């Protein structure tokens, strides 16, 4: 059996980086991409290569269908097949909806939601001939309940949740499973805007008494795809009991 391959979008740092490194530790060949942080992405690639497995690094916008086509063409050329897609690329936007510009709204939708469509479509084309594959998207608890001053972000994550449930039904006959992780407050640079007081207040709201770690997300992202081929169409919450 050939070595398995995983593609992780938004993998230069944070959750995506942790997932890419974790899969590499488990022996997967890894394809990683980012839009802006090429230097950081290449450091992730170097770590993976030094761990003894192959890694493809690509800089491009997964909210752009042409860049997605190029990324997946390189995956096919270098690895020949794709077993798992992790849709992780995402940005946040904090502010009142009435103050949000058209370009800000469209940027959030393109990066967070269009990327899931473009990448999943490309992955499906590689998985269908094999009648096997996994698609896992990194969502948020705000996609389940919504967050004030994060309307665009919540909208995209709610869209990912609905996308996951619908696509799972569509692909189940082809033995391709589709799931999502709805993350709570995870300790990443996306939360860097919080002051020390705000961070303390947030932590006090979480029954587990702390933020989640990117390593915990990575382990769950691996276990979901590795342990059960009957698990599909699920949005699994990882939030320390917060929501």
Descriptive key words:
single chain; 243 residues; alpha/beta; 7 strands
Distance between the termini: 42 Å
The helix/strand order is EHEHEHEHEHHEHHE
Overall pLDDT confidence: 97
The total count of helices amounts to 8
What percentage of the residues does DSSP assign to strands (E)? 15-25%
Strand order of the biggest β-sheet: 3-2-1-4-5-6-7
Poorly predicted residue ranges = none
Query: What oligomerization state is this entry in?
Result: single chain
Kindly provide the radius of gyration, computed on alpha-carbon positions and rounded to a whole number of angstroms. 17 Å
The secondary-structure class comes to alpha/beta
Helix proportion range = 40-55%
Largest sheet geometry: 7 strands, parallel
Q: Care to count the β-strands?
A: 7
Shape summary? globular
What features would you describe in this structure?
The chain has 243 residues and is an alpha/beta fold. It is built from eight helices and seven strands; from the N terminus they run E-H-E-H-E-H-E-H-E-H-H-E-H-H-E. It has helices at 14-25, 38-50, 65-79, 102-127, 142-145, 151-171, 196-205, 214-227; strands at residues 5-8, 29-34, 55-59, 84-87, 133-140, 176-183, 235-238. Strand 4 (84-87), helix 4 (102-127) and strand 5 form a beta-alpha-beta unit. It is globular and about 50 Å long.
